Structure formats: structure tokens, C-alpha cells
Amino acid sequence: MFKPDILVTGATGLIDRWLVPQLSSQGKSVAVLIRNADQRANEYKHWINQQHGNPANVEFFEFDLTAPDNTLLNLDISEVQDVYHLAARYQFGLNKHEARKTNVVGSLSFLQWCKQIPNLSRFVFVTGYLAATHAKNIQRLNKNKQQQAIENQYKTTGAYEASKVEENIALQERAKSLNIPYTIINPSAIVGDSKTGQTNQFIGPSDLVADLFFGKLPALVGGPDIFVPLVSVDFVARFMAQITQFPQSASQSYWLLDQATPNLPQLVKSIANHM
Questions:
Q1: Where are the alpha helices (DSSP H) in the chain?
Q2: What is the pLDDT of residue 68?
Q3: Could you tell me which of 76, 88, 78 has the C-alpha nearest to residue 125?
Q4: b/e per residue 218-236 (b: at least 16 CB within 10 A)
Q5: Tens of pLDDT along 75-109?
Q6: Residue 60 bridge partners (DSSP)
Q7: First-to-final CA distance of the chain
Q8: By C-alpha distance, which of 39, 42, 31 is closest to 71?
Q9: CA 182, CA 122: separation in Å to the nearest integer?
Q10: What is the rounded CA–CA span in Å between residue 227 and residue 260?
Q11: CA atoms within 13 A on the CB side of 38
């Protein structure tokens, strides 16, 4: 029976598409927890091979984040050491209930399920550059004010972003109560591979590029003091694949960005000139 060293959720997202090949190339046995596992396995293993990973080290298991207790019954967790939790419902226009069901309630249920892993040494999860900053500010408030601050996030930043703020705070509290070491990764706006530009996510910075290309950006948003940091997906993957090797990274949050990113007007100008 396949005995993984690592569990990964959200493996069809942008980060995990680069993370899983990285982990498999290190000789780690990786269990990819995913919906429609049987239908996706062949294509994904081909992708891993293209990215110089080792598809022989990867197996796929059916997983539903909204019902983690009812799945993964056939998964041997006796040798699992690290869990990378990246599954989330990521889209604009979500309502509060939709966003919380997956990103908050589902994540908490999955963390609770992970408590049964006998040799678990790290639970790594991803929030985001701004959401994690909001979470950190809210955590500085008195306990009786934190929930109201979270509710205000749903009113001001939208359901997805607010759910990631709430998830960040809730997972930290639950992990501490369960005595599960955790690490939080907070990438800035993620772009494609630093060498090839390849990506599988066309939202965020890609929208800006498309609007420029099709002449749909009639005015430059923001001023010269606006800094929208970028980070390449392969850097994020490499960072995450190595972070659990460092004991001092437990209970820490890391904000990932490229400090050489130009301010927004110059960034837009550079993209426009290139095209």
C-alpha cells in the first residue's frame, strides 16, 4: 500500500501545480487529495513529469474539503510528516456562506482530521499577502472585538478575502489548541514561472495584462505611490517545499514578494511596452 510522507490539498491550483513536482523530485512520497481523482490523475502525472518531478512518487485520493471525515478512508497516514493545505474556493462574487463553508469551516474540519496523523510535524497553509496582514491586525485587538472586526471584513473586502482572514485566525487558534505545529505562507500577487512565464491561473495580474492587450484599460488606476508586489510561482513552490526542513519556521508566518517589483504605474507601462 502507498504510504505517503506528505499530504497536499488544492493540488490543481496555481501554487500546488508547481509544489507537487518540487516535493516529488526530493524523493518524497506525495498523496494528492483532490476531487475527481481518477479522472485527473493521468493528466496531472504528465504535468509532474514535464516539470521534472517524479510521478512515480505521487498518488491521488478522492477528497472533499467540505466533508473531510467522510473521505480519505483508504489513505495510510502512518508515515505522513507534513501536510500542505492549499484547497480553497477562490473566485469573485462568492457570498459569505459559500466562502465560509469551504475556506473556514472546511479548513477547520480538515485540521481537526489531521490530529489523528501520528507523526505529523507540520501543517502548512496559505492565506495571502493582504488577508494575512488584516488577520494580524485583528489579532492585536481584544478578544471581544475580534469577531466584529472579522464581520467588518466581509462588508469591506468581499467574501473570499474576508474568509481567508477568518481562516487565518481560526486555523492558528485551532492548531495551538490541538498542539499541531503550523506555518503560514502569504504570497503577494502570483505570476507565472520566472523562466517560462507559464501559468494555469488567469485572474489577478492576468486580468491587467488582458485589459492592456485588448485596449480595455482607459485610465491608469492608482498613483505613483501604489506598490503591488509580485512573486513568481516557482519561487513560492521552492520556498514551501523547503520550509518544513527548518524547525524554527514552526508557528511563523512568511510574506513572499519580489521587492524589485516596480510601483504600479511603471509596472503597467513595462507590460504595455512589452506587448
A1: 14-25, 37-50, 96-100, 107-114, 129-139, 143-156, 159-178, 205-213, 233-243, 264-274
A2: 59
A3: 88
A4: eeeeeeeeeebbbbbbbbb
A5: 999 999 999 999 998 877 889 999 999 999 999 99
A6: 32
A7: 51
A8: 31
A9: 5
A10: 10
A11: 0
